[in-house]
Amino acid sequence: MTFLFAQKEVSGFVFDNAGSPLSGVNITEKGTSNSVSTDINGAYSIQVKEAAILIFSYFGFSKQEHETKEAVLNVFLSEEGGQILNEIIVTGTRAAPRSNTATALPIDIISANELASTGQLTFDKALQYRIPSFNTVQTPVNDATSLLDPYEIRNLGPSRTLVLINGKRKNLSSLLYIQPSPGRGETAADISAIPIDAIDRIEILRDGASAQYGSDAIAGVINIILKKSPDDGSITLRTGITSKGDGELLNISINNGSTIGNKGFLNYTVDFSKINLTNRAGKVDAEGDFNDFVRLLPNNPLNYVNDDNTLGNTTLTDAMTEAQINSLFEQYKVNFPADYNAKLATINQGNIAGKQAVDSFLKDQPYAANTNGTPETAAAKFLINGGLNLSNETELYYNAAYTYKKVNSFANYRAPYWMSIKNPFENPSIPNWRIATAYPTYLKDFFGNGTVASYKGYQPTFTGDLTDYNASLGFKSIKNGWNADASITIGGNSQIYTLDNTQNRSPLKDSNGNPIYQENSPISFKPGGSNFNHVIGNLDVFKILSDKISISFGSEFRSENFETIEGDKASWEGAGADSFAGTTPKEAGKWNRYNWGAYFDLAYDLTKDFLVNATLRQEEYSDFGSATVWKISSRYKFLDDKITLRASVSTGFRAPTLHQIYTQKSQYTFNAGGGIEVTRIINNVSPEAHILGITKLTPEKSTNTTIGIGARPLKYFNITIDYYNIAITDRIALGDVVNTPQFGKVAWFENSFDSKTSGLDLVMNYSNLGLGNGQLAFNLSGNITFENKRISDVASDNFGATIEALTFTSRPKTKWILGTNYKVKKLDFYLNNSYFGKTTFKQSGLDSNLRTEFSPKIVTDLGINFLVTTKLTLALNIDNAFNILPKWKFKSENAAGAAILNDPAQIKNQFNLITFNGRYSQMTYGGSQFSQLGTQFSLSLNYKL
């Protein structure tokens, strides 16, 4: 006998508590094997018996049972334990997404409103005042570094933080930091290229993630989640200025969207901005500049050499040692007393005249006409983010961004006495014993009106043109509970440089003996640039096997291309363009590599409280071989989910970037006590490296351990504390400049040392506190660095105190952020206090018995939002309201250092050595722990479309 039961169809959607659809939710008719899964939109449809009960189960969420009284049944699932769901986290796991409190890893979530409330124009600066372990600051020296400021998580350098956009890897910048400031030798993705108004939220994983994402994720991951809303568009107009009356800001941004039929959406952002120059140059010490650029030493044999390269009756040769020349000089004083005394008198006269020239210039220009601050920047940013449902099981998604940025900055001003005979590229027709104020006569024609009196020096200008783009196209599908995501991502960054108001002072001559440069030099140069791009293919698959087990696996193929672009000949030949030497044909080139990676991830809920997650990854690189890394993380909740314990241990790796492997470049740098000098960077695959015995670069390897606890004792109060320990072996560094007999002063990259970094992160939030007619919220977050040090010997003698300090102590040892938000009727009030702890430097030229320390400071930011109408909001921000500036002082390392600090003359000398004679008195030539701009005001109008 056959029994027939009445059947009916039940359909609907399944959401999380934030209203986001959940795909892959298991829906089972109770007591049967009849089941389906939600599709890409969270929708389902199932045939069941009359009066059936449906069980809704999803990995990491509480099961729910519902009677099927109606034909339409929409369900909202909550995190296990029934707590209010904060956010669905997609970063840090390759298995099914989880809520913030259910993840086994420390993750910060920063909303778009929080970013906007900082009043900062760019994304990187907004994060500086929201995430304690994130640090960035404007570099004290501009030129190419003005195009992107270095940033980092947990003091580990820019190269060790991976940046994702909607979960896809963003391209690196083509810029390699080579200045002696924090971030030296590193490169990073340009996160300032992403307009803030296009961002829905930021997920920052503060844990090693190489097993999940591959190279560059040793310190953590920044995942930028873009807006998806087809509605809620707005136009924002921002303006601002510093309390010094410079740095004027004008910005207009449009974010809007639209639906595509009833199956898709498109969200877009257009952003234009202009920021004017700021100048925070310090007063220049005349004595210091005189000693660096003008003063001739009476006991220097080279000051007595004749035009025909003779000293007395002996011709000097390149083969002679310093000791041999000094010996000849002693004979010269005895054997040619008349010549010696005559030249000595001329030297003394020259020094007197030179000192007068320096004093006269600095009397009129006490700041030496220098411009030291943030550059003039104009930017245009475009971004789209969209999706289209092709069917109930398949979705097409895409995003694309393009940024153009033009930056104008200045090199150090070339005072007239910079072209004196002490300059290494002086006109050879001027004898070494000539009066020190002599300079090549053609300069008065280039930078004056042809008269000696009109020549007041010159200031080279630097213009950088940057383009940055990225785009992803992908398909998501779900079938029988299997979620697949296939995508292709492209991205690139290009920088082209221009120099103006400068010259090539090289004494090169053509075949007829006529000068090629000097009086025939151009005053505008194209010194080249750099380019980087990548193409990435990803395939990611995950399936929720049950309400306890989820698996995922996938692969990635990535091709990278790096190019250094040759400059015009005049920019590099001989001495090259003064202030920024161009890229030579030998230094220019194109390089490529590719890699393939695959991973497998298993997440297992042993109980509803106890989670274990394991990931294994294999990488194969075309240029250095393979790497195998793994990660195990776990989370345990108890006391009705009010307390969560979590821990992870992982191995990681970071492949040297193509920039680090192949970059070769000449650069102008400040030589403490010796003015400006030109040095070179040689790469590890060059003939020079082979001659010097420099080995090729290999990947860095790391071991990361994190242990944390989270608590939610009250509904609106939560706190997390996480300890981290990161050990890196074969760490790559750009070393100090070394004076080699074969190639002069050069620096190079190498796997220099092993390091250890440990510390503590704390995040605490308390919201929805009733106060009067409003709601009050507090948040306190902090980062404490316990250790950040080298734990091995260095590979060679090119890693000195300066590089060690830039690597380990140039970022705040402690950083805290205390924020308060009060909402009452139409007003929002923000008060944010950022505590920047002590930083320590060992600047080049500083006496080894001393160090410099930047004192701890608190920077206070204020913000007020006023809802004028339901569509119009007025916002006023006062950043650094109390005009707090970085402040540093000398500290002694020992008794010898204390003796120096008891001598005002020696203190002044040390000050000159590390500030370029006062030019960089606020930050020092090495940098500081936060901005030198002081108070900044900004006003914005936001109109909802």
Automatic annotation (TrEMBL):
Cell location: Cell outer membrane
Topology with respect to the bilayer: Multi-pass membrane protein
Keyword Transmembrane: yes
Pfam families: CarbopepD_reg_2, Plug, TonB_dep_Rec_b-barrel
Superkingdom: Bacteria
Domain TonB-dependent receptor plug: 103-221
Signal peptide location: none
InterPro entries, alphabetized: Beta-barrel_TonB, Beta-barrel_TonB_sf, CarboxyPept-like_regulatory, Plug_dom, Plug_dom_sf, TonB-dep_rcpt-like
UniProt keyword annotations, A-Z: Cell outer membrane, Membrane, Receptor, TonB box, Transmembrane, Transmembrane beta strand, Transport
Domain TonB-dependent receptor-like beta-barrel: 445-880
GO cellular component, one term: cell outer membrane
Family statement drawn from the similarity comment of this UniProt entry: Belongs to the TonB-dependent receptor family.
The protein's name in its UniProt record: Iron complex outermembrane recepter protein
